[in-house]
Amino acid sequence: MGDQKAIIAMSDQYIMRTYGRLPIALVRGQGLYVWDADGKRYLDFVSGLAVDSLGHCHPRVVAAIQNQAAQFMHCSNLYHIEPQARLAKLLVENSVLDRVFFCNSGAEAIEAAIKLARKYAKKKHGPERYEIISAYNSFHGRTLAAITATGQAKFQQGLEPLPDGFKYAIFNDLESLKSVIGPHTAAVLLEPIQGEGGVNVADGKYLEGVRRLCDEHGLLLILDEVQCGLGRTGRLFAYEHYGITPDIMALAKALGGGFPIGAMLATEEAASGFAPGDHASTFGGNPLACAAGLAAVQTIIETKLVEHSAKVGDYFLGRLRGLQDRYPFVKEVRGKGLLLGMELSIKAGGVVTRCREQGLLINCIGDHTLRFIPPLIVTGADVDAALKIVRAALDQEGEG
Question: With contact defined as beta carbons under 8 Å apart, do 203 and 235 qualify?
Fold first, then answer.
């Protein structure tokens, strides 16, 4: 175990300053807990930004990675890869989609979805179809096309000129979407829950209306489930809450149980937009990543963590909403399953700091919204332990 001050100093000296890092260096994780280099333990309700859905170092994922690493870590997609085929089969059999493209991250999955939507639209409708409509306050990743699809100007500043072919509509406002659909529209890209936008949950009738509009205009519906997919909301996929079928879906984060992997899924019809050579990824779907993904998804399904997420999430949501009566500066609590947000009328950064000092890791979105994304293995007792710290932090903020 290294010296925490030395690690932080080395990081500050040599790593590009693209992150506003907190003053701790995490060196170990097990289950719901992580430890910093000084040996302090934290209850982790950030879970790697929804990546560590099984907690840290889940034994099935660790064993799968160890076994695969000793056997075969990488080969080109010029060849068939057994763990890749098995993971694709598992995802298809548990969703409404038919084909899978593997990549390395959520942003890459979104890039693949944008490329597929444009390829399909041009083949199906002609060269004038290329625009992607997304929502204000969305977040779709950090590559240039994904950040352009992101409906938050603060992420785009200094990157101009941005790629053409993107428009935005107001989230949960069907009339706003109708107003921007035009002759060049190819697809609509939405998050069922806007995680980085403030844990904004799509209304059921809104998504039903979006699906209907897409059908009427011959558009593809792309759902970004990078953060909210794979059990996070109390269903295996968030679209299941709404009774709709996407044409394309992006996954990542929880897919690898902590190991980097992303995936773009599509219906057979939408997938017909791609032909050999239209898209590729050198590391996408490599044996090691897919072995981790297979173990992670099998564990989520077989141990009924989806149902567990729904049950504990309902309990957590109720406890958080109970805090609204106690603290006048708690404006709203929202979310589904174990993707929850608490909006404050005061700045939330101080609460995050006080919680960290007391051994709880949470984070805030923007200036005012606390986000809670614990591993799906969390229990009601763990929620109670976390909320005891949150209440103490809110008490201190209220006094301040």
Answer: no
Give the pLDDT mean for 374-387.
98
Q: Cβ(187)–Cβ(273) under 8 Å? A: no
Residue 398 dihedral angles phi and psi, to the nearest 5°: -65, -40
Report helix angle 380-399 to 305-326, nearest 10.
30
Nearest CA to 228 among 203, 259, 249? 249
Q: How many other C-beta atoms can be found within 10 angstroms of the C-beta atom of residue 21?
A: 12
CA distance 328 to 71: 57
Tokens of 58: 């889940």
Residues 6+ apart with CB under 8 A from 45: 360, 361, 362, 372, 373, 374, 378, 386
Residue written as tokens 């109970």?
A: 322
Q: Evaluate if pTM is beyond 0.90.
A: yes
SS3 169: strand
Query: Within the chain, which residue ranges are assigned CATH 3.40.640.10?
Result: 59-302
Q: Which of 224, 274, 316, 382 is catalytic?
A: 224
Characterise 58 by phi-psi region: left (phi > 0), alpha (psi -120 to 50), beta (else): beta
**Mean of pLDDT values over 217-244:** 98
Handedness of CA 144, 150, 152, 155 (dihedral sign): negative
Residues 6+ apart with CB under 8 A from 80: none
State the catalytic residue, choosing from 119, 167, 253, 336: 253
Please pick, among 45, 101, 139, 166, the residue that the annotation labels catalytic: 139
CB contact at 8 A, 69 and 238: no
pLDDT at 99: 98
- CATH 3.90.1150.10 domain range(s) in the chain: 4-57+304-399
Q: Write down the CATH superfamily of domain 4-57+304-399.
A: Aspartate Aminotransferase, domain 1 (3.90.1150.10)
Q: Is 253 a catalytic residue?
A: yes
Architecture of domain 59-302: 3-Layer(aba) Sandwich (3.40)
pLDDT band at 380 (very low <50, low <70, confident <90, very high): very high
Given pLDDT bands bounded at 50, 70 and 90, which one contains residue 398? Answer: confident
Q: Across residues 333-348, what is the average pLDDT?
A: 97
